[in-house]
Amino acid sequence: MATHIVMDHTGDRRHQFDPQDASELAEAETRFKELTGLGFTAATRTAAGETLKVASFDPTAEETLFFPRLVGG
Amino acid sequence: MGLLFRNWRRSTDPPRFRTVRALYNIVRTSNSPEARGRRLLRRWLSEGQLAQFDAFNFFDVIGCHTARRYRIYYATSANVEELDEVGCPLMRYCFIPMGYLAPGDVMLAQKIALETEELAALEVANRFPPKAQRPAQGSRPQIVRSSA
């Protein structure tokens, strides 16, 4: 199972999907596009712990984190 | 849950009431936004950053474009400092994700931003002079001089 983690005021909400299931994969891709379209940044991490920003949906990513657009505080 | 506690308080078994209330508080606080944000942050930190965070409640990241070192403190605003070679703060930055996020979430977003799109993060950041106090004891890197 793969997971989309979306940061929000509750901490985060998680969406799990099976990358082998075509309908769940399509739903996950739609969610990815919606969130990045809203200004969320998507990131994954490598096994070595390095973080990577991702610009397009990666069906092989085990965990993708989304955080809202950054603004000056 | 509150009604249940009010009724139970009058019960003839106060120790059991206290135990259940303590358990309820543990579950409630472990699922709070702050606790969840902290757990998520810890999972995404590198080994070195995690050790530093556990010891000092802050961690350092290296900017992906300039290789400058930044220190991210446990807070939700104006909590990022740029450090010089010996660990003295040069500038304080404030850039945060939109919405009311827990400190752990804010720190994780700042870490990822600095490690993957440093210049874009600094572009939106507000800048302040660094805090007057010196870094916490033990937080400075040790300078090793060669004896050659």
Strand content of chain A: 35-45%
Alpha-carbon distance between the two ends of chain A: 36 Å
Kindly state the percentage of residues in helix of chain A.
Answer: 10-25%
Q: Structural class, from secondary structure content of chain B?
A: alpha+beta
Strand content of chain B: 15-25%
Largest sheet of chain B: 5 strands, antiparallel
Number of helices of chain B: 6
- The string of secondary-structure elements of chain A, in order, is EEHEEEE
Measured by residues with Cβ under 8 Å of the partner chain's Cβ, the largest interface is: A-B, 24 and 36 residues
Q: Specify Rg of chain A, calculated over alpha carbons.
A: 12 Å
If helices are DSSP runs of H or I spanning 4 or more residues, what is the number of helices of chain A?
Answer: 1
Helix and strand run of chain B: HHHHEEEEHHE
Main pleated-sheet profile of chain A: 5 strands, mixed
Shape of chain B: elongated
SS class of chain A: alpha+beta
Overall 3D geometry of chain A?
globular
Tell me the helix content of chain B. 40-55%
Uncertain regions spanning at least 5 consecutive residues of chain B: 141-148
Compact description:
The complex is a heterodimer of chains A (73) and B (148). By secondary structure, chain A is α+β, with helices and mostly antiparallel strands.
Plain-language structure description:
With 73 residues, chain A is α+β, with helices and mostly antiparallel strands. Chain A is built from one helix and six strands. The mean pLDDT of chain A is 95. Chain B is an alpha+beta fold and 148 residues long. Classes of the chains: A alpha+beta (73), B alpha+beta (148). Chains A and B meet through strand 1, strand 3, strand 4 and strand 6 of A and helix 3, strand 4, helix 5 and helix 6 of B. Strand 6 (70-72) of chain A pairs antiparallel with strand 4 of chain B, so a sheet runs across the interface.
